[in-house]
Amino acid sequence: MVMRKLGFRDTVGVNSKPCSSLVKRGDIYALPLKEDSFDFVFSTAMIDGVKVPARMVLEMERVLKEGRVGVVLRRVAGNVVPARDVMKAAAPVSSYLKFSDVVDVRTVNCTVMVIFKKRFLGGLEQVLKKEKVSAAPLLLAAE
C-alpha cells in the first residue's frame, strides 16, 4: 500500500472489495472502525462521485481523532482552476462538517483538496456527539 511506503506504518484502507490484508471490507457510509481512532483520514473517492457525500464526510469525521486532519477530494472542470472556483468547490464539504473546520484548500490538476481539522470538542458539542444527534451512524475507496 502506498501509505506504508510513505512511512505511515499503521495504515488501514476500507473498500467494498478488499484487495490486501491492509484493507478492511466495509462501506464508506458506515465504516467498520472505532470512533476517534485515526490521526489522518483521506478518501480516494471523489466526493462528487458518491451517492451520499454528506454521510461519507461525517463518517470520515467520526473516525478521526480530535485535533487531527482529513482530506476530501472534489473534481472541477477545466485544466486551470480559478481561485473563486476553488473556494466554491470547498463550500459543500464545509457544509457537511459538523465537528471540524476547513483549514486549507489546494488544487492538484483538476482536483480540489479540501483539508479539514477536527475540533477539540467540549460542552454542548460533546453532549451532541455522545447522543449521536449530529453525527452519522483512512483511506476510502469509491463505492
From TrEMBL:
Domain Methyltransferase type: 23-67
Source species, domain of life: Eukaryota
GO molecular function, a single term: S-adenosylmethionine-dependent methyltransferase activity
Entry-linked Pfam families: Methyltransf_11
InterPro entries xref list: Methyltransf_11 (IPR013216), SAM-dependent_MTases_sf (IPR029063)
UniProt-recorded name of the protein: Methyltransferase type 11 domain-containing protein
